[in-house]
Design a protein that fits this description.
With 195 residues, the protein is an alpha+beta fold. The strands form 2 sheets. An 8-stranded mixed beta sheet has the order 3-4-5-6-7-8-10-9, sandwiched between helices. The chain has a two-stranded antiparallel ribbon with strand order 1-2. Helix 4 links the parallel strand 7 and strand 8. The longest helix is centred in the last third of the chain and has 15 residues. The termini are far apart. It has a single domain, classed as Aminopeptidase, CATH 3.40.630. It contains 5 helices and 10 strands; from the N terminus they run E-E-E-E-H-H-H-E-E-E-H-E-H-E-E. It is globular and about 40 Å long.
């Protein structure tokens, strides 16, 4: 793609740029389902709004650990306005690179010794093996950024997430002060889990 710009003297200068089709990372699940992953950007607000309208009420409750009827503007702002260092929201996209099919938020403490992760998946894209592949990718990105331990706080009712995280090597223990929750932890200083 050629773009015409003006140099300081005012004459036209021809610049050539490669056309970038996608900045997303392609991932494939063990079942062969392909999707793309990239960090959130401010222009994703409308796509995230649409995504959360396709998340079940139970999954919303498990993701935010409270019964919320919908994800409002304040929460969307929190998910979109990240520093891409201590706080990141990864989006999983269908291969069209437009449809958000999952979201994974990571929030790390100041020295990055610990970060909390929370994932939620579009109802129509569950049971395709993407939760494992997505969480594995997010864990590897957390490790790459220097985070030492990943934590997930789950409702004890969220059996699918707890089972998946245990299979990935997370250890489980009671959550201090709340018997309805369970704390799962993954040591990122060890080798990555097998797919």
């Amino acid at each position: 793609m050629s773009v015409s710009t003006k140099n300081p003297a005012g004459s036209a200068v021809r610049e050539t740029h490669d056309l970038i089709v996608s900045k997303s990372i392609p991932l494939t699940t063990r079942s062969g389902f392909e999707f793309h992953v990239r960090p959130v950007v401010p222009s994703d607000e409308a796509a995230l709004t649409e995504f959360f309208s396709h998340v079940t009420k139970d999954d919303l409750r498990f993701r935010f650990l409270s019964p919320i009827p919908e994800v409002g503007k304040e929460m969307l702002s929190y998910l979109i306005n990240v520093d891409h260092d201590h706080k990141e929201d990864f989006l999983a996209l269908d291969i069209d690179d437009k449809t958000v099919i999952a979201s994974a938020m990571i929030g790390a403490n100041e020295d990055k010794s610990v970060a909390e992760v929370a994932i939620v998946v579009h109802a129509d894209y569950k049971h395709r093996g993407m939760s494992w592949t997505f969480l594995e990718y997010v864990a590897s990105e957390a490790r790459r950024s220097g985070i030492k331990k990943l934590q997930s706080i789950e409702s004890r009712e969220n059996h699918a997430a707890i089972e998946l995280e245990r299979e990935m090597g997370f250890t489980a223990k009671s959550y201090p002060g709340d018997a309805t929750l369970i704390l799962l932890e993954l040591d990122l200083t060890c080798s990555s889990p097998e797919a």
